[in-house]
Prior knowledge:
This protein is of the alpha+beta class. The protein has helices at residues 8-17, 22-29, 33-40, 48-58, 68-81, 93-102, 104-126, 143-152, 159-172, 180-192, 224-239, 241-251, 256-275, 278-287, 292-299, 303-310, and strands at residues 195-199, 207-210, 215-219, 314-315, 318-319, 324-329, 334-339, 368-373, 379-389, 399-408, 429-430, 455-456, 468-469. A hairpin with a 4-residue loop joins strand 2 (207-210) and strand 3 (215-219). The longest helix has 23 residues, at 104-126. Residues 11-65 form the HTH cro/C1-type domain.
Amino acid sequence: xxxxxxxxxxxxxxxxxxxxxxxxxxxxxxxxxxxxxxxxxxxxxxxxxxxxxxxxxxxxxxxxxxxxxxxxxxxxxxxxxxxxxxxxxxxxxxxxxxxxxxxxxxxxxxxxxxxxxxxxxxxxxxxxxxxxxxxxxxxxxxxxxxxxxxxxxxxxxxxxxxxxxxxxxxxxxxxxxxxxxxxxxxxxxxxxxxxxxxxxxxxxxxxxxxxxxxxxxxxxxxxxxxxxxxxxxxxxxxxxxxxxxxxxxxxxxxxxxxxxxxxxxxxxxxxxxxxxxxxxxxxxxxxxxxxxxxxxxxxxxxxxxxxxxxxxxxxxxxxxxxxxxxxxxxxxxxxxxxxxxxxxxxxxxxxxxxxxxxxxxxxxxxxxxxxxxxxxxxxxxxxxxxxxxxxxxxxxxxxxxxxxxxxxxxxxxxxxxxxxxxxxxxxxxxxxxxxxxxxxxxxxxxxxxxxxxxxxxxxxxxxxxxxxxx
Length: 470
């Protein structure tokens, strides 16, 4: 095992789910009650024999007892603790690890509360009055963050939906010689009597589905990959509404808006899994050593669809390379982000200016390769590439984005982009999460001082950065 697994909270929840006492659980696992008590209090780690015994006794996936989620919680707590509000409390990493280990639910509650606090401050600072009838509570301010965190803590992989999508894709011959758009439109017509039309009206939405009339209208402005995605998303609505409802109920989103965004995200997840079915795409990605251009060419999917799908290949027993994936606009806003790695995205504010996604806008479609190191010492092979969505009509600007995809350098052998790159001698870009919480004192691209450090200015001395971090 990669590291010791302290998962007392998971064992406790499992025991409570089956309404067992510690002595009864100990009997089932053939260990002593005192050992169960020590595991649940995180005084002792879970050993491989105990994990196997849990899997056999309760039929659960032992990979769910891993420490990756706890690492993410600790990383998020560290960012939150940098807020000046907590400066006098001297919250250390060990404190955060203790909270994440003993009560991850409390840690999530704390993170959620801090987001609401920040949004309240931003709303009040904007000095904008609420519209008539508009709610002024914070539930409406953070639905996207809530859905984002939901996918973040499940490794951006939804097993039930992925397996169902793969089964249908296999039956339709996707990635086996059949054009996805043709296969999906044929399935909609045969199975659900849905007619598909293409509209050239520039004022029409990109996609509009009338459930009662069984009519799907797609904009002519959509490229073939976009049309295939909308067809697949419509199939998801028709075939998996019940399963998505159950997933949403278990997710426990706090607002109706978050639930609606979550529903849309889960339908889109199915669409991505239909276009790039798991096993076939994983085999192709490995065979092509994750060459993005080859994967786009051979699957017919868009670059964004390929990158996004690579970040979801985390099926237990058949995991792909753990990737992070991000989509960034010209203002530096991260509009989409997923990660199966320890790579940490800023929960608040913009991304680190040293990250190569910012240079991708001017790279002319070239894939940029960067050796990057995060403050925790983790090193990544970071790829970045610019994409442009054409304007829909005269006078409308094209929409430009940069896509970021990366994995830990330990997986470099599986990446064509590492060929010819000396991993020991290559220059390393020292990234931070964001300027507000970055501990690096010698970065010439720093935009703001760190929240948790004092600064000093000298009117007689002016460096590249107009302050010194104490």
